[in-house]
Structures are given as structure tokens and as C-alpha cells.
Automatic annotation (TrEMBL):
The keyword Hydrolase applies. InterPro entries: HAD-like_hydrolase_sf, HAD-like_sf, HAD_sf, PGP-like_dom2. Gene3D superfamilies: HAD superfamily/HAD-like, Putative phosphatase, domain 2. This is HAD family hydrolase. PANTHER family: PHOSPHOGLYCOLATE PHOSPHATASE. Pfam families: Hydrolase (PF00702). Keywords: Hydrolase. It comes from the Bacteria. SUPFAM superfamilies: HAD-like. It comes from Streptomyces lavendulocolor. GO terms for molecular function: hydrolase activity. The keyword Hydrolase applies.
Length: 220
């Protein structure tokens, strides 16, 4: 792997994949099953947290029990993956990924989506070859991305953290970046409101093109 230039670690859901409508639809379908009131996009972006049980705590006034969480998690994923099949990439994503690869710059994909479901959908969008690695979640869905980021960076074989910028749509992406000594840029097209992202203390952008430009400045 090349030793020069910024290495980008991309998030998938809500960043490269424009799936926020699928997320809201699946969330409300799952809520209906478990007796919770439906939620608006604005309310979702205001309350969303990772680990996800903390999001449910905001809605329920308490953390779900382990049994409740298992039901909620299964219901959401059952509804979400049906909807995800018709989601497209975010505006400009395919072109940005191709341009970076053509320029000899490296990038990888790290997601909390299950690995066995992530890889086929990335492949169907025709962008798998743009990344030096594609890693999805292989363990529990109750934790954030920080420990997954540690394993991802080890697998990148020597890319120093100061060369790495994480681009994602959630505060947890910035937390995971800081955990390994990398930088982060947060994108407003996904799970959080601009206000909640701004509170994290890293650059916040409205387009992926801007995210890449800011990432290059951060790692310069």
C-alpha cells in the first residue's frame, strides 16, 4: 500500500449510501411492532445515538432490556434490508471514489452493518474495487465503531493514524477516529442533525465533495 497521501475511511449507511429514508421507514415499521409511536426524520436526527440502545432510551425513558433489544434489533434489520435494496449512492459518491482511486490515493470502508450483508450491497453498486478493504460488523450490534476501527487500522498494514481521516454521518464516527488517533469529517446527509454534529467538535459538511476537500486539508 502506498505510503503517501491521505487515506480515507468511509462510513457506509447515511454517508456513501443514501439510505436515510429507508432507515426512517424501517424504524417506524419496527416501532409499530413493539408499540412505540412513529418518529419523524427531524426527531430521529435529534435523538439518534450509538450504541443504538441509547437511542431507544431517549424514546422510552429507560434502556431497553436485553430481551426487548433483541426484538427491536431484529425488527429493524428485517424491515431495513428490504428497503436498502432500492437505495442509491449519495450524490457524487461514485465519482469521488473513482477519482481518488485513479489518482492513486487509498480509501477503505468500515461499517457497523453486518459484514455478510454489507459486502454484497457494496458489490452491487459497483464500487467494491475502489477500496483497499471493506469491513462490516462481525460482532455485537450494541457497541459503537471504536473497536472495529482498531481492527480495521491493523488490517490496513502500516497506514499511520495521522494520515487517516474518517468520513461519516454520526458522532460515533468521530469518536472512533479519535480512539485511534485519526481525524474525522462529519456529513449532514445521514443520521444526525447539523446541530448535533457541530457539538462533536470536528468539521461538519453538507456534501461528500466538501468532505473529501476538508479531509485533505486535515491530513496535510
Amino acid at each position: 500500500m502506498g505510503k503517501h497521501g491521505t487515506h480515507l475511511v468511509w462510513d457506509w449507511n447515511g454517508t456513501l449510501l443514501d439510505d436515510i429514508d429507508a432507515v426512517i421507514g424501517a424504524t417506524n415499521a419496527a416501532f409499530e411492532e413493539i408499540g412505540l409511536e412513529p418518529i419523524t426524520l427531524a426527531r430521529y436526527r435529534e435523538l439518534y445515538r450509538v450504541p443504538v440502545p441509547l437511542f431507544y432510551e431517549q424514546l422510552m425513558g429507560r434502556l431497553p432490556t436485553e430481551a426487548e433489544w433483541l426484538v427491536m434489533d431484529e425488527a429493524f434489520h428485517r424491515h431495513y434490508w428490504v428497503r436498502a435494496e432500492v437505495c442509491g449512492l449519495a450524490a457524487g459518491a461514485a465519482e469521488l471514489l473513482a477519482a481518488r482511486q485513479a489518482a492513486g490515493l487509498t480509501q477503505s470502508l468500515l461499517s457497523l452493518a453486518p459484514h455478510d450483508l454489507l459486502v454484497p450491497i457494496v458489490r452491487r453498486h459497483g464500487i467494491e474495487e475502489r477500496f483497499v478493504r471493506v469491513d462490516g460488523r462481525t460482532g455485537s450490534s450494541t457497541a459503537g465503531k471504536a473497536e472495529h476501527m482498531v481492527r480495521h487500522l491493523v488490517a490496513l498494514e502500516g497506514v499511520p493514524p495521522e494520515r487517516i481521516v474518517v468520513i461519516g454521518d454520526a458522532a460515533d464516527d468521530a469518536v472512533a477516529a479519535a480512539h485511534v488517533g485519526a481525524k474525522a469529517v462529519l456529513y449532514t446527509g445521514g443520521s444526525h442533525s447539523r446541530k448535533s454534529l457541530a457539538a462533536v467538535g470536528v468539521p461538519v459538511v453538507d456534501t461528500l465533495e466538501e468532505a473529501v476537500a476538508v479531509a485533505e486539508e486535515l491530513a496535510a
